[in-house]
Design a protein that fits this description.
The protein is an alpha/beta fold and about 270 residues long. It has helices at about 15-25, 45-60, 100-105, 125, 130-135, 150-165, 185-200, 205-215, 225-235, 250-255, and strands at about 5, 40, 65-70, 80-85, 90, 95-100, 115, 140-145, 175-180, 185, 240-250, 260-265. The protein is built from 10 helices and 12 strands. It is globular and about 45 Å long.
């Protein structure tokens, strides 16, 4: 059994099980009506900065047993599109297993997907989602996917492949996209830039999202995972994406000159 150890526990989120559970609980608003979503987009910064946005997202949706978890590759290790197909991921509060049947189905659904573990060993973007998912559903299993590079047609092909896998699966699947928004510009500029990307996501427009982030220099690190997921969600019949919460790191740090944006969405 391959065990993927937590690599940012104690840095991005509390490393102690009790403290982590308390932190996650504190970020989840009470008495929120949950919807059945096709996908969500959630940030992956340190919880002190973006945990409240992630909590707003996860409190708004039902968390099924099976999650396709897709995020950017920050490390440059592994394959261009990496699917970890077996093993378990440890976090301080428990162990999240990989759904090996579903992962094999994803890895085999397109030549663009490559079975690979190297991309996941030091990558934080997927790991920071797990404490929320595990807190809300102790039976949750995942298919971890990271993306390094892809063009629109490749994103469209991967989205179509995911939609086929999900359509043929006998249980509900939620796609979780891990992404922050614009990086390291002023709060004013970041909010303006992020507004353009947000409108494309709300329109379920994968091509528009890729084009606007490129043309306006919006450094949304998970833009490729988001584009793939928007394409898949459209194929699966999604009709809308709703912005649940938006924030920037300035609200925590007090630094309004160099901020990161965080946007949380439900797609249904």
């Amino acid at each position: 059994m391959t065990i993927r150890k937590a690599c940012v526990a104690g840095q991005f989120y509390p490393g102690n099980a009790g403290d982590l559970e308390e932190a996650v609980r504190g970020f989840l608003p009470a008495d929120v009506t949950k919807i059945k979503a096709r996908a969500v987009i959630s940030p992956h910064a340190g919880y002190i900065y973006s945990g409240h946005v992630a909590g707003a997202v996860y409190s708004a949706v039902e968390i099924p047993d099976d999650i396709i978890l897709i995020g950017p590759n920050h490390t440059g290790l592994g394959k261009m599109v990496s699917v970890m197909t077996e093993g378990e991921w440890e976090i301080p509060t428990g162990v999240v297993r990989i759904n090996e049947v579903l992962a094999a189905g994803v890895a085999g659904s397109s030549d663009l997907f490559s079975p690979d573990m190297a991309a996941h060993l030091g990558e934080h973007s997927l790991e920071v989602q797990l404490p929320f998912l595990y807190y809300l559903n102790r039976s949750v299993s995942i298919v971890p996917i990271t993306i390094m590079q892809a063009g629109y047609e490749q994103c469209r092909e991967m989205g179509a492949a995911l939609s086929r896998v999900i359509s043929g699966y006998e249980k509900d699947i939620l796609i979780v996209v891990s992404s922050d928004m614009n990086h390291y510009e002023s709060d004013e500029v970041t909010r303006e830039k992020d507004g353009f990307a947000i409108e494309m996501i709300k329109g379920l427009d994968a091509l528009g999202l890729l084009e606007v982030t490129s043309s306006r220099g919006i450094t949304m690190c998970g833009v490729l995972p988001a584009a793939i997921t928007l394409a898949a969600a459209r194929d699966l019949g999604a009709k809308k994406a709703e912005l649940v919460k938006y924030a920037t790191s300035a609200e925590t740090s007090g630094d309004f000159d160099h901020v990161v944006g965080y946007a949380g969405f439900t797609i249904s």
